[in-house]
Design goal:
single chain, alpha/beta, eight-stranded mixed beta sheet, Rossmann fold, globular, 2 domains, seven-stranded mixed beta sheet, about 425 residues, Nucleotidyltransferase, domain 5
């Protein structure tokens, strides 16, 4: 007997903007960037495209990547289950947020907060949801390589969150080729009625409205701590290619994580008082030996390595502090005294006018600075007095330690008196 065909109806009827995106992928666009206003239906669109890609190819592997695993579960998992439920033979793994289809295809949800969970995989299709909240390296170092074996495609969706990875991808998509760009502004799509948009204008700042509803990348990220300072640095062309001066020592500022990421900023202090941030390195799950090797590989002539006060805490297992462990590897730290976080943020804001930042070697650091923001209390509808602790914290903590170190390095510039008799 031949295989019996079964008609399956998935309860999804795409709107006009959604249909245009599905069609572009069907027609061969490999990398599709969708910049869209809130409530456009981005997540529903993306989940259904994932299901479609998984069904079109036997044993297909499809990944849906949210900013965090928790967000992926809260935002996409229920949709994935809802739209695949009519498919006979479908099964689910709640722990892994995995949907297995009867043709061997698989859709799985991941979090960009744990990019190492994606390493070593291959994928036919990937969705990156709210790309503006992800580190640049998630795409370039992790996701792009996993598409290579199968020549897979990617769908990037989100609402602007400043000039970061999402902005860079949108600019890339404007060049065409394998890329396509879709932009959906609320004033154009007509999906949100005028009365609702007028109400939103009354309760949001102009920047918030432009970002959330009109897809502006130039609007400041809501609650961003260094937004004004970074915008000024860009306007004054201080975010540019910054040459490394071999005549000056290379200083480093570290935010050392244990179960978290470690961020290292490489900088030089010019005689004129400029803070030249010329390089940046961030990694997770590595020991001090890895960083000692990395420092040596860069071949800089080092001055002071600066780290936070908790470097002097002794570990229970070894009885040694990380300062002692680093010294044994040739890294001599100057440990900063403990200080108030708010004082450090204020000092960093004040020092920003003296900063020059290399736009290529420090791209990930710029992402962090752009996205470093105050935590938000949803219940009280107000910002908290502390920054949100997420991926952007590591680079910005290192930046704060840099500024504290620069204050210690600062000396009065030498001067010369020219005494002449007045005739």
């Amino acid at each position: 007997m031949g295989a019996r065909e079964v008609e399956v109806v998935i309860p999804y009827s795409p709107r006009s903007p959604q249909r245009a995106i599905h069609e572009a992928i069907d027609e061969g666009a490999r990398f599709v960037v969708v910049v869209a206003h809130r409530r456009m239906g981005k997540t529903v669109l993306a989940v259904n495209e994932c299901i479609k890609r998984a069904l079109l190819r036997t044993n297909a592997r499809v990944c849906y990547i949210a900013p965090t695993f928790r967000q992926g579960k809260a935002v996409a998992w229920d949709f994935l289950r809802h739209y695949t439920d009519p498919i006979p033979g479908v099964s689910y793994n709640e722990t892994e947020l995995r949907c297995d289809l009867p043709n061997g295809g698989r859709v799985r949800i991941f979090g960009a907060d744990n990019p190492d969970s994606l390493r070593g995989l291959s994928a036919d299709f990937v969705v990156l949801d709210e790309v503006g909240l992800m580190q640049s390296r998630v795409w370039s170092e992790v996701v792009r390589p996993l598409l290579a074996d199968r020549k897979g495609g990617a769908l990037f969706i989100g609402t602007p969150q400043g000039r970061n990875l999402f902005h860079a991808l949108a600019e890339q998509a404007k060049l065409g080729g394998e890329w396509r760009l879709f932009e959906f502004r609320a004033s154009v799509t007509g999906l949100i009625d005028d009365i609702e948009l007028a109400s939103a204008r009354q309760t949001m700042t102009p920047d918030e409205y432009q970002q959330e509803w009109e897809c502006s990348f130039s609007a400041s990220v809501k609650g961003a701590i260094y937004a004004a300072e970074l915008d000024r640095a860009r306007t004054e062309k201080r975010v540019t290619r910054v040459p490394i001066d071999d005549a000056m020592l290379m200083q480093t500022a570290w935010d050392l994580g244990v179960g978290d990421a470690t961020a290292i900023i490489f900088w030089q202090h010019s005689p004129a008082g400029e803070i030249r941030i010329v390089d940046y390195h961030e990694a997770s799950g590595e020991g001090l030996a890895y960083y000692a090797s990395m420092l040596q590989a860069k071949s800089y002539k080092y001055g002071v390595h600066t780290g936070p006060h908790d470097l002097e805490v002794r570990e229970l297992g070894t009885g040694k502090s990380r300062v002692e462990q680093a010294k044994a590897l040739g890294i001599n730290f100057r440990v900063l005294p403990q200080s108030k976080l708010e004082d450090g943020i204020a000092a960093t804001r004040a020092a920003f006018s003296r900063m020059w930042i290399d736009e290529e070697r420090c791209a990930s650091l710029l992402d962090a600075i752009q996205n470093y923001r105050w935590d938000y209390n949803q219940r009280l509808d107000e910002f908290k007095s502390l920054p949100l602790h997420d991926w952007a914290s590591h680079g910005c903590d290192a930046l704060r330690y840099l500024v504290m170190s620069a204050k210690k390095e600062a000396k009065l510039a030498p001067f010369k008196l020219d005494l002449r008799w007045v005739r």
